[in-house]
């Protein structure tokens, strides 16, 4: 039961970067540029893969879903953060806060499992190339992606209910630029030790389930690559995994630091910096990683541009 001087919270105030008043304009421009690049990059990846039949393969089917997830979970955080730079009261209702947390956890969890599925796809392609068309059929790929979305809905529901099952009363100022789990638990007037344990255990277990298959896949992939005799063949095999491997290190590294390692180990500024990295930077750089290092995507873009140019030229001259 709440005390007489305790008032139930119905909305929160996102403090964001209000403690850095001199950097407000710079941060606004930086976040805006990153969000625009995120939109352009991920939409371009989706459109290129959709428009070019040569890219209608399992690898690019998963990449399309990854780009869609990056779009969604960046859009869950960044637009609100940009608006908060320009308004005096950065309020968000209890329902909106819970919705933002649910969608964000949903998309972040989806990225984890999609990276795992993509690692399995690379394992089959490199270690069992002759069986690849039989193993990675369209039906199997669809089932894998549907399985990802079913798991993440259950996981995000558990985590959201766990966070919002506590009592919020008194202070309603979230010391963050979005509704995140740990800053929310700090506002509770009830004992949150159990909720903290549940959060860390589920996040750690989820990361474990996602990371272990990736590690096992790459051990087998590296073993298979080292058995390739020609240096050209080894280089080609490594290049097909380099983009995915870099994304895995960047994404899971920041995720583990924020949600699995105890919060007392890091300052508020470090936590916010890591949050910016995986909510804004990673969705922005993923399309660059997969397109700049990918000859298939660059060739597909060239074919699309040539086709469009030929079509326009034909209409103009004829």
TrEMBL record:
Organism (species): Geotrypetes seraphini (Gaboon caecilian)
SUPFAM superfamilies (UniProt xref): Family A G protein-coupled receptor-like
Name of the encoding gene: LOC117348574
Domain of life: Eukaryota
Keyword Electron transport annotated: no
Residue ranges annotated for the G-protein coupled receptors family 1 profile domain, each copy included: 41-290
Pfam families: 7tm_4
Subcellular location: Cell membrane; Membrane
First-listed, main subcellular location of the protein, grouped into a coarse class: membrane
Keywords, in A-Z order: Cell membrane, G-protein coupled receptor, Membrane, Olfaction, Receptor, Sensory transduction, Transducer, Transmembrane, Transmembrane helix
Family indicated by similarity: Belongs to the G-protein coupled receptor 1 family.
CC terms in the record's Gene Ontology section: plasma membrane
Molecular function terms, GO-annotated: G protein-coupled receptor activity; olfactory receptor activity
Record field: transmembrane: 26-48, 60-78, 98-120, 140-158, 197-226, 238-261, 273-292
Presence of the UniProt keyword tRNA processing in the record: no
Membrane topology: Multi-pass membrane protein
Protein name: Olfactory receptor
């Amino acid at each position: 039961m709440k005390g007489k001087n305790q008032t139930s919270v119905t909305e929160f105030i996102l403090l964001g970067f209000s403690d850095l008043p001199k950097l407000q304009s710079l941060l606004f421009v930086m976040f805006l540029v990153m969000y625009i690049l995120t939109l352009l990059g991920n939409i371009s990846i989706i459109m290129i893969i959709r428009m070019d039949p040569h890219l209608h393969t399992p690898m690019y089917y998963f990449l399309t879903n990854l780009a869609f997830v990056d779009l969604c979970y960046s859009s869950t955080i960044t637009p609100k953060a940009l608006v908060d730079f320009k308004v005096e009261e950065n309020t968000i209702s209890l329902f909106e806060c819970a919705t933002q947390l649910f969608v964000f956890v949903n998309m972040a969890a989806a990225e984890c499992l999609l990276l795992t599925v993509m690692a399995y796809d690379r394992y089959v392609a490199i270690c069992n190339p002759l069986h690849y068309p039989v193993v990675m059929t369209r039906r199997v790929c669809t089932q894998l992606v549907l399985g990802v979305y079913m798991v993440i809905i259950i996981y995000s529901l558990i985590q959201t209910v766990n966070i919002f099952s506590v009592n919020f009363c008194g202070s309603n100022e979230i010391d963050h630029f979005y509704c995140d789990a740990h800053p929310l638990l700090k506002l509770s007037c009830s004992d949150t030790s159990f909720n903290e344990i549940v959060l860390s255990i589920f996040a750690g277990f989820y990361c474990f389930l996602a990371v272990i298959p990736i590690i096992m896949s790459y051990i087998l992939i590296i073993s298979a690559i080292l058995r390739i005799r020609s240096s050209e063949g080894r280089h080609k095999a490594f290049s097909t995994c380099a983009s995915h491997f870099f994304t895995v290190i960047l994404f899971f590294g920041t995720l583990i630091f924020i949600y699995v390692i105890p919060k007392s180990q890091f300052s508020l500024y470090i936590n916010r910096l890591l949050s910016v990295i995986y909510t804004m930077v990673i969705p922005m750089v993923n399309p660059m990683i997969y397109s700049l290092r990918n000859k298939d995507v660059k060739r597909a873009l060239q074919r699309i541009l040539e086709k469009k140019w030929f079509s326009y030229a034909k209409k103009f001259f004829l």
